[in-house]
């Protein structure tokens, strides 16, 4: 499938990805090629990937999977391993994994000896259509997501849809949630077609989602304006995700599951503040509830979630900024929301 | 004194620095202004600085001074404090301190919420003429110096020579060592005049050294070529500094003291490999020994120091790259040195 050009790197899919990787390594004179994996991708993806790569995987570095390991302690471990294995400025880091791994691996590479090259090879649907595209790297600080990081582009992103065969449906749906978001913020037709799907690994849809994210990021790499629209559903979604992660009594939500709730809540806010039609809000709610079910939040939960809002990276001067929809396919940024609407939004979600 | 223009920021000296800072803060609409200090600059420099700044120091953040605190643990503490005090993307961090503090503060700012603005206000001679200029930020990984970091420019650098009054002579000499390096690598006349000085706080000399470093950095911000010349004396100097820091039986050397030794050693290598005259090597050795005295290294010390060389950031593909002098005022980069010359260089230093 044809490649997608970005600012300084390219996204290659399927058979072209393999050729691009081999070519890049052949021409780049790297001193060492490191591959970062977790216990899952080591078992399920690394054998397949090594065949694609040919002979050139000098050192495999392993971290533990999961958002609770996406922190500075894990970075320190990888920095030390790179150093121990004589990584130098001409080393290359290949990040083979989901969003946690590509976010963390990108940050480690961007900061090791003030920056070495890295390539993202996303193995989950979520990271194919979202995390691995756009140059955001980073780790969490306690329960606060992605508080520490830099914006830095990989050399390339390689998408092999065959890795999706290794995933459970719950994981696939988490990526599907971000793909639906791409439709909601930029392309009503894409939303319309995608929301009726019952399998989520269609290569054409993956490509469409990557193209939408890439278009936005190219126009605004450092999130001064347009790029903010990608945060639709994420302001409340991140707070919900953090809350469930740090609360031992709650089941941990996958990223896509949390932002699915966020998108329902923020569509309600869009209706109240920006004229998104009642019908559209219903459509958003029904679509996400159909695929993700409903999660219960009591008054104490909601209070704690709203408290986490103030740490959102998108804020400045103490205000909480939202991305809202004017209509399906059109997003507005930097909207302030009166506090009393939050409880109403949660009530709408629950009803 | 007239300001020095850099790529994306300016270096302001003396009275202009105060005006530039006030103006920048007035026009920038920062949500919060943080000042990072250590226990020394808090006591000796912060009161003076607050007067210059006027009213706008919202939160003072304190770290412990010293190279042994220049690590990720200290970064985590500062990231957490920034987060605790509701730092957001529109916050500003003012780094008030020596090289350890501006390197660490620059890294913390560059990575907090994927990057907030920072301004360096160096309080030591070393950081005025070296560390605060050029956008290198970072911290140590164990005993390996500056292994973790990014290249990112501050909004501006403000130089107030009056802070030098708070320093001991040993500290001043550490900066003087870097100033002498600027002469050795770029300007023979500057070297000639500077090496005869007995006081080290001359504002014109400080300005000359900043201008030399800045010229080099502007031409090559990411150290692909010319910028490497700034590493003269640093390849062996860093290894010596690391060795003394991690070895409890050795007295810790200041950075300038370590690279003074490094410059003598590397001048000897320059004579052996690149034709630097015997007379010039003698001149370099006498100058540094006059100001810094001689440090003893036995065979075991030298062996351990050479082992540390392989972790130098400037290496690639397992070779150790050196900057050597062709003559005083002219440096050459990427020179490989045969291993047997290292012992000869140490012998020359000791004789």
From TrEMBL, chains A, B:
Domain 3-dehydroquinate synthase C-terminal per the UniProt entry, residue ranges: 175-315
The UniProt record lists the keyword Zinc: yes
Cofactors: NAD(+); Zn(2+); Co(2+)
Name of the protein described by the UniProt record: 3-dehydroquinate synthase
One record GO biological process: aromatic amino acid family biosynthetic process
Coiled-coil segments: none
Record-annotated 3-dehydroquinate synthase N-terminal domain positions: 61-173
Pfam family name, one: DHQS_C
Lineage of source species: Bacteria, Pseudomonadati, Bacteroidota, Flavobacteriia, Flavobacteriales
Xref: InterPro entries: Dehydroquinate_synthase, DHQ_synth_AroB, DHQ_synth_fam, DHQS/DOIS_N, DHQS_C
Function: Catalyzes the conversion of 3-deoxy-D-arabino-heptulosonate 7-phosphate (DAHP) to dehydroquinate (DHQ).
GO cellular component terms given for this protein: cytoplasm
Keywords assigned by UniProt, alphabetized: Cobalt, Lyase, Metal-binding, NAD, Nucleotide-binding, Zinc
Enzyme class: lyase
Gene3D superfamilies: 3.40.50.1970, Dehydroquinate synthase-like - alpha domain
Enzyme nomenclature, EC number: 4.2.3.4
GO MF terms held by the record: 3-dehydroquinate synthase activity; metal ion binding; nucleotide binding
């Amino acid at each position: 499938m044809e490649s997608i050009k970005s600012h300084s790197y390219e996204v290659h899919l399927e058979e072209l990805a393999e050729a691009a990787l081999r070519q890049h390594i052949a021409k780049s004179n790297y001193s060492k090629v490191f591959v970062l994996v977790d216990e899952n991708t080591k078992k399920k993806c690394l054998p397949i990937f090594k065949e694609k790569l040919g002979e050139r995987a000098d050192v495999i570095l392993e971290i533990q999977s999961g958002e609770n390991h996406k922190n500075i302690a894990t970075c320190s471990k990888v920095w030390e391993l790179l150093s121990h294995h004589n990584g130098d400025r001409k080393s290359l880091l290949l990040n083979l994994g989901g969003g946690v791994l590509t976010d963390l691996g990108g940050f480690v590479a961007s900061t090791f000896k003030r920056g070495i090259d890295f390539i993202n090879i996303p193995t989950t649907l979520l990271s194919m259509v979202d995390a691995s595209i756009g140059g955001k790297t980073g780790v969490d600080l306690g329960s606060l997501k992605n508080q520490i990081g830099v914006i830095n582009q990989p050399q390339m992103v390689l998408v092999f849809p065959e890795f999706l065969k290794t995933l459970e449906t719950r994981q696939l749906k988490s990526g599907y949630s971000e793909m639906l978001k791409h439709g909601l913020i930029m392309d009503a037709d894409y939303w319309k077609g995608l929301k009726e799907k019952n399998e989520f690994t269609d290569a054409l849809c993956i490509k469409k989602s990557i193209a939408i994210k890439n278009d936005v990021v190219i126009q605004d790499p450092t999130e001064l304006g347009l790029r903010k629209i990608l945060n639709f559903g994420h302001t409340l979604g991140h707070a919900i995700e953090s809350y469930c992660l740090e609360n031992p009594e709650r089941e941990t939500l996958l990223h896509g599951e949390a932002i699915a709730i966020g998108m329902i809540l923020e569509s309600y806010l869009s209706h109240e503040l920006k004229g998104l039609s009642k019908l559209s809000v219903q459509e958003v709610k029904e679509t996400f509830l159909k695929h993700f079910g409903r999660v219960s939040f009591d008054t104490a939960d909601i209070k704690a979630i709203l408290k986490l809002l103030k740490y959102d990276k998108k804020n400045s001067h103490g205000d909480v900024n939202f991305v809202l929809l004017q209509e399906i396919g059109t997003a507005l940024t930097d909207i302030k929301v009166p506090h009393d609407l939050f409880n109403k939004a949660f009530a709408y979600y629950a009803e």
